[in-house]
Design a protein that fits this description.
The structure is a homodimer.
Chain A (H helix, E strand, L loop, with lengths): L1 E7 L4 E7 L4 E7 L4 H24 L3 H4 L3 E7 L5 H11 L6 E6 H9 L5 E6 L3 E7 L2 E6 L2 H4 L5 H16 L7 H11 L7 H5 L6 H5 L1 H10 L3 H24 L7 E6 L7 H14 L3 E4 L5 H12 L4 H13 L7
Parallel strand pairs in A: 1-4, 4-5, 6-9, 9-10
Antiparallel strand pairs in A: 1-2, 2-3, 6-7, 7-8
Helix pairs in contact in A: 4-13, 6-10, 6-11, 7-10, 10-11, 11-12, 13-14
Chain lengths: ~325, ~325
C-alpha cells in the first residue's frame, strides 16, 4: 500500500510517492496543470509525466503499484465539487480506485500544518486564506487582481508602482530609491514608460509581481516606504487569516496559521504585522512557516482519506527529507 | 476666417466649425480617433469624416474654407509633445496652415471653463486632473486602472464588486441590495460567476464601469454602501484637483474647478465630498459643471491660438446652442 500525493499548479506539477508511513519512495515533476487553463486532459498529461518520475525513482512497476495506491491530487483552478468530481472520474480509467481531489489551497494547508486542521494564508502572485476545521472548510479572498488578492506579490508591486506614478505627477515627494529600483527592474529611464509595459496584454502578473522581491530587499536596507508597503501587505494577509479563523470558530482555540508562498520570503516585514493582526482577534493562534510543501500536503490528504495516523506520516516525510531523498519537501 | 475645433476620442470624433465670434456654422461626427489605438492615419480618417459634416451643414466649399481656418484638435492618447508635433505635421498636407494639437484633457478643460485657465477633473471610465495657468500646465493621475484612475467609473464599479466578493466569503455582512444589483447588471445568479466575466480578455472596462451608474441610482434610493463608495470617489477626485491646483500655484487664487465626465451624473453624492476636499486646500476655488463640451474647448483653443478675445466666442457658442444649431454643445 502506497500514498501518492500530487500538486497540480499553474506552472508545474509535483508527485510524491510514499509508504503508508510517509517514507518517500519516489518523486517526479511535470508541466502545468491548472484545471481552468489546461483542462482535464492537460491535468492528466502533466500528472502522468510527474508519475513517471515516481516509478523511475522507486523502481516500482506502474501496473503493479497503481492498484495499491491511494491517490490524492490538489489541482489549482478546481475549486468546485463538480470540477473535483470530474477529475476524480478521469483517474478511474488510469487504474486508480482510491482517488481524492481537492483544490491547491487545501493541500497547501495540509502540507503546511502536517495534515492537521487550521488556516493557511497563501500569498504568491495572488493571495487567499483557506481553513479546515473538522468537516468544515472555508476560503477567504483569492478573487484575482481586480476583486481581491490583497497582500499578494502583484498587489505589493502595484502599491510601489502607484507611489512612483504619484511622485511622478507630484502628488507624493520623489522617492529616489524606489524610482531607481523601478527603473532598474523594469528597464525604463522614465516612469511614464511603465504604462505600455504594465498594460501590455496579456497582463504579466508574475513579471510585475516579481518586483515585490525588490521591495523586500529595499525594506532590509532600511527603505521606509518599502517597509510600509510590506507591513500593509502583512496586515491584509492577517485579516484574511482572521476571517477564516472566525468563520471556522477558531478564534478562541489554540492552533497554527501557516504562512505559505513567495511573499513570506520578505520575512519579518510581512510576518510581524500579520502576526499582530492575528493576535488581536485570535490570541492563541500562532503564525508559522510551512512544515512541508503542497505535494507533501497531498500525501497527508491521501493518509487522511485512509484514516491513517498522521504523525508517523509526518515523521516519515521528515526523515526522508533529512536523508536527502526528498530534500526539497 | 473660421475656427474649427475637433475632439478626437477613443469612441468617436466631433468637429465644430464656427465664426471668429463662436457662431456655429456646422458640426460633424466621425469614428474613433485615439492616437495610441488608431494611429495617425486612424485619427486623420475620423477627422476627415467629422469635417464632412461641417462642410455639409455650413454650405461652405472645403477647398475655399480650409485656407481660412484655424484648426485645433484634442486627441486622446497624444499626451507628449512629439506625438502632438507628428499630428500637427500630418494636417499640413490637408491644406491647413494654422494647426494646434493638444491632448483631450486640455480641450475638455478649455470647454469646461470657456477657455479660461483653471483645473478640470475628468472622470469617465478612468480619471485625470488637468490644469492650465498661464504658460504652465500640469496633469495628475490618469495612469490607468492598475496604477491610477481613482474615482473613475471602473474604480467605482470595482469598489462595489469587491464588497460583494467580501460579503460572499463572509468578510463583510451580506448586502442584499448590492448583491441583487450586481446579479441583475452582470446577469449572474451567484457572485462566483463574476470571476470569468470580470477577467475576460480583453478587459471590458467600459462595460464593468457602466455598473457605476447603478451605484448612483442606489445612492439616490438611500443605499448607504453606494453613498459611501461615491463619497470616496468624490474625495479621490477632489484630491486630484487639489494636487493640480497646488502644483500650478492656484490654491490661494479665486477660480473654478470643472467636474467633467460621466461619473458626475451621480450628482451630489460625488460632488459634495469632492467640493469639501477642494475647499479645505483651496477655499476660493469653486467646483462647477462644464460650460461647454470638449469640441467647443477645441474651438476656444483655436481662438486662443489667434489671441482672440474669448468672451465673444463663448457668447457665440452659447447663442448657437440656445438657437438649436448646436444644441448638444
Amino acid at each position: 500500500m502506497y500514498l501518492l500525493g500530487i500538486d497540480c499548479g499553474g506552472t508545474s506539477t509535483e508527485a510524491l510517492l510514499t509508504t503508508l508511513e510517509g517514507r518517500v519512495l519516489g518523486r517526479g515533476h511535470g508541466g502545468p496543470a491548472n484545471y481552468t487553463v489546461n483542462g482535464v486532459s492537460g491535468v492528466l498529461r502533466s500528472v502522468r509525466e510527474a508519475m513517471r518520475g515516481c516509478w523511475a525513482q522507486s523502481g516500482l512497476e506502474e501496473a503493479e503499484a497503481v492498484p495499491q495506491i491511494t491517490l490524492a491530487i490538489g489541482v489549482s483552478g478546481a475549486g468546485r465539487p463538480s470540477e473535483q468530481a470530474e477529475l476524480t472520474e478521469a483517474f478511474h480509467p488510469e487504474g486508480f480506485t482510491r482517488v481524492v481531489v481537492a483544490h491547491d489551497a487545501h493541500i497547501a494547508l495540509l502540507g503546511a500544518l502536517s495534515g492537521t486542521d487550521g488556516v493557511a494564508v497563501i500569498a504568491g502572485t495572488g493571495s487567499i486564506a483557506y481553513g479546515i476545521h473538522g468537516e468544515r472548510s472555508h476560503r477567504v479572498g483569492g478573487w484575482g487582481y481586480l476583486l481581491g488578492d490583497e497582500g499578494g506579490a502583484f498587489w505589493i508591486a502595484l502599491q510601489a508602482l502607484r507611489r512612483v506614478m504619484r511622485a511622478y505627477d507630484r502628488r507624493l515627494p520623489e522617492d529616489q530609491v524606489l524610482l531607481e529600483a523601478v527603473k532598474s527592474y523594469f528597464n525604463v529611464v522614465d516612469p511614464s514608460e511603465l504604462i505600455p509595459l504594465i498594460y501590455k496584454t496579456p497582463l504579466d502578473r508574475g513579471y510585475i509581481g516579481g518586483f515585490s522581491k525588490t521591495i523586500g530587499t529595499l525594506a532590509d536596507q532600511g527603505h521606509g516606504a518599502s517597509q510600509e508597503i510590506l507591513a500593509d501587505a502583512g496586515r491584509q494577509l492577517g485579516r484574511l487569516a482572521v476571517s477564516a479563523l472566525a468563520e471556522l470558530g477558531l478564534t478562541k482555540t489554540e492552533g497554527r496559521v501557516a504562512a505559505c508562498g513567495g511573499v513570506f520570503s520578505a520575512g519579518r516585514w510581512v510576518l510581524v504585522p500579520m502576526e499582530e493582526e492575528i493576535r488581536l482577534a485570535a490570541p492563541r493562534q500562532r503564525l508559522t512557516l510551512p512544515d512541508f510543501n503542497a505535494a507533501a500536503g497531498a500525501v497527508f490528504l491521501a493518509a487522511r482519506h485512509l484514516c491513517l495516523e498522521l504523525s508517523p506520516v509526518a515523521e516519515g516525510l521528515r526523515e526522508s527529507s533529512s536523508h536527502g531523498v526528498a530534500r526539497d519537501v
